[in-house]
């Protein structure tokens, strides 16, 4: 009799580090592959929630599930990629493998007076309340974008028009454009940036930018709007 193939659910999740986690300082985001042995959860509808809880316990907030599929030992007969994690999940019931992206600093650090990740949190909290500024090209109808030293695309965003203006030399056909916190929600700019697989690079001081997952500041904007008494109408 042919042996029954072992089975698991394989998920890929897009996530960013929680602000109070040990991974927040160094990482902007991650793709995490999860293998959940089929008998660990009672039903398929519970598997994703289970995986999200385990990823959350490691200090990461899940933005979305990009892949959800059944795999078995047969899946990896001719495929080595992921085989070791599947085999480990057969033993442990659950395995998560993180492909992390380090935070990148663009420009000049200057004297922020503290850890740049702390400056990032303060900047995001300011944006959550009062909005912020980026650079916009009226002729092309698009927001400024750039490429980090590691080759990732980003949207620059600052808490003051003065800081944004300091960077016009790098985008000479652009002008400073402000967005209130409510406009950040109704325009879905940050959501579109995430869909385009871009980072947001938040201004730290006048001459520095620090990368973060676009959903992280959006979460803070949404939370602040809720505290003010509700989300704006779309």
Would you write up a description of this structure?
With 234 residues, this protein is of the alpha+beta class. The protein folds into 2 domains: 7-102, Roll (NE1680-like fold); 105-228, Uncharacterised protein PF11572, DUF3234 (Trna Endonuclease, Chain: A, domain 1, 3-Layer(aba) Sandwich), CATH 3.40.1350.90. Helix content is 31%, strand content 33%. It has 7 helices and 12 strands. It has helices spanning 44-57, 83-92, 116-130, 161-165, 181-187, 189-195, 215-228, and strands spanning 7-17, 27-37, 60-72, 94-102, 105-107, 132-137, 142-143, 146-147, 153-157, 175-179, 199-203, 208-213. The strands form 3 sheets. A 5-stranded mixed beta sheet has the order 5-12-11-9-8. A 4-stranded antiparallel beta sheet has the order 3-1-2-4. Helix 3 (116-130) packs across helix 7 (215-228) and helix 5 (181-187) packs across helix 7. The longest helix has 15 residues, at 116-130. It is elongated. The protein starts with 6 loop residues before the first strand and ends in a 6-residue tail after the last helix. The relative contact order is 0.16. The model has no long low-confidence stretch (mean pLDDT 90).
């Amino acid at each position: 009799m042919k042996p029954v193939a072992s089975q698991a659910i394989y998920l890929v999740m897009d996530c960013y580090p929680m602000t109070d986690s040990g991974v927040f300082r160094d990482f902007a985001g991650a793709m995490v592959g999860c293998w959940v042995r089929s008998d660990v959860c009672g039903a398929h509808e519970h598997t994703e929630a289970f995986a999200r809880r385990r990823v959350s316990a490691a200090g990461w907030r899940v933005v979305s599930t990009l892949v959800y599929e059944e795999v078995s030992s047969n899946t990896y007969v001719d495929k080595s990629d992921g085989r070791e994690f599947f085999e480990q999940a057969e033993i442990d019931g659950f395995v998560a493998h993180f492909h992390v992206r380090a935070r990148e600093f663009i420009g000049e650090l200057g004297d922020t007076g503290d850890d740049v990740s702390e400056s990032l949190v303060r900047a995001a909290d300011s944006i959550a309340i009062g909005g912020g500024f980026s650079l916009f090209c009226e002729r092309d109808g698009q927001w400024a974008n750039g490429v980090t030293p590691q080759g990732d695309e980003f949207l620059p965003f600052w808490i003051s028009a003065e800081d944004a203006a300091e960077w016009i030399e790098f985008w000479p056909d652009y002008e400073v454009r402000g967005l209130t916190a409510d406009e950040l929600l109704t325009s879905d700019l940050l959501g579109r940036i995430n869909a385009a697989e871009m980072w947001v690079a938040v201004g730290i001081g006048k001459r520095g930018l620090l990368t973060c997952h676009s959903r992280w500041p959006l979460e803070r904007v949404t939370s602040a709007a809720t505290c003010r008494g509700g989300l704006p109408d779309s």
